[in-house]
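Title: Comparing notes on inverse folding

I've been comparing how different people in this forum approach sequence design from structure. To keep things fair, I'm posting one structure and asking everyone to reply with a full sequence. Here's the target:
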């Protein structure tokens, strides 16, 4: 029987540990995200994607094109369109035509949107502090350092 090494699991112990690390990263990320979603829904009748779009817009006072928001958040234009439509309908965002490009729109937060996001961002920071409250300063700094190293190595590939 011929076994293709490319499809067979590795016997390298480091390879197994890397897989274990990946699964633990996914689990931790999913648990934090689920709790953030629950709190946004329960305490602010909002969603994590809505928060993410407002966060991106808050960092770009001049506004962003829909395609720029999609790229920043790594989601489809269709997902962004629905969220921006609802933010606009609720008075939190404004679409402005881009001069020279009849199809493009720049999206920015309104004053009402900025105030609403400031409230959400304060709550979000508090929730993250609570959720990660079991970590001390050494834990946090060590994880940040290691994750920065991982990010750099992934971006270099």
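Reply #1:
Here's my take.
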């Amino acid at each position: 029987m011929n076994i293709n090494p490319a499809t067979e699991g590795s016997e390298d112990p480091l390879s197994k540990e890397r897989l274990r690390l990946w699964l633990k990263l996914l689990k931790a990320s999913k648990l934090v995200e689920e709790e953030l979603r629950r709190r946004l829904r329960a305490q602010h009748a909002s969603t994590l994607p809505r928060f993410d779009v407002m966060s991106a817009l808050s960092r770009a006072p001049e506004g962003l094109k829909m395609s720029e928001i999609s790229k920043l958040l790594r989601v489809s234009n269709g997902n962004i369109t629905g969220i921006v439509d609802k933010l606009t309908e609720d008075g939190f965002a404004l679409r402005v035509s881009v001069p020279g490009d009849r199809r493009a729109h720049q999206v920015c937060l309104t004053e009402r949107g900025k105030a609403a996001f400031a409230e959400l961002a304060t709550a979000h920071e508090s929730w993250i502090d609570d959720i990660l409250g079991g970590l001390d300063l050494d834990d946090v700094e060590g994880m940040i350092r290691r994750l920065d190293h991982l990010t750099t190595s992934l971006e270099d590939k």
